[in-house]
Amino acid sequence: EVQLVESGGGVVQPGGSLRLSCAASGFTFSDHYMDWVRQAPGKGLEWVGRIRNKANSYFTEYAASAKGRFSISRDDSKNSLYLQINSLNIDDTAVYYCARIHLWPHRYFDYWGQGTLVTVSS
Amino acid sequence: EIVLTQSPGTLSLSPGERATLSCRASQSVPSNDLAWFQQKPGQAPRVLIYHASSRATGIPDRFSGSGSGTDFTLTISRLEPEDFAVYYCQQYGLSGPIPFGQGTRLEIK
What we know:
The complex is a heterodimer. Chain A is mostly beta strands. Chain A contains no helices and eleven strands. In chain A, strands 2, 4, 5, 6, 9, 10 and 11 form a seven-stranded mixed beta sheet that branches. Chain B is an all-beta fold. Chain B has no helices and ten strands. In chain B, the strands form two sheets. Chain B has a six-stranded mixed beta sheet with strand order 2-10-9-4-5-6, with no helix packed on it. Chain B has a four-stranded antiparallel beta sheet with strand order 1-3-8-7, with no helix packed on it. The relative contact order of chain B is 0.33. The interface between A and B is medium-sized, with 22 and 27 residues.
């Protein structure tokens, strides 16, 4: 059974940093691209960024709103995905989801974690 | 970047009725790589449809997707009580950005 479990959320002061984790199981993690998506309270879904697999040089890309402060990484030996967020501001308050990208040819988001809540507040 | 616009914002229907949700793209969606997701309160999104009309694993056949180019539709043939939720469309692909529509809330009338 495919499982994605996020952790690392919590309450952080503006300007602070946080590292979110996503533990994967039930599939060959190293084969898949992985994404982060966030959802502010009562709002819609917003794509944050992606990391490709080793075969594609772990290439990363980010939404315009995430460039510069967000960094996605992965450790295939630990079946884990990470999201580092620096210089947090109020607008970063959201539930952060990791999502698995289906293999070629249809790279849709086929599995999601349950999310971890990040609250930026003084 | 493609912008996805969903309509209506809210749809009020009764169980047993047919629901038709629309997603319009600002430019043609490459390869019709458009997905639909269902999200219930406090839960992660769940994929229903990918490639515009292919049902994801385990999705009941009352859910169907159609369309191509810039206009896409999610149809729920006969609403069950558990279908009342928020629905999002999304254009996906090899690379970002990956836009989502703003969502349609399907509520019980």
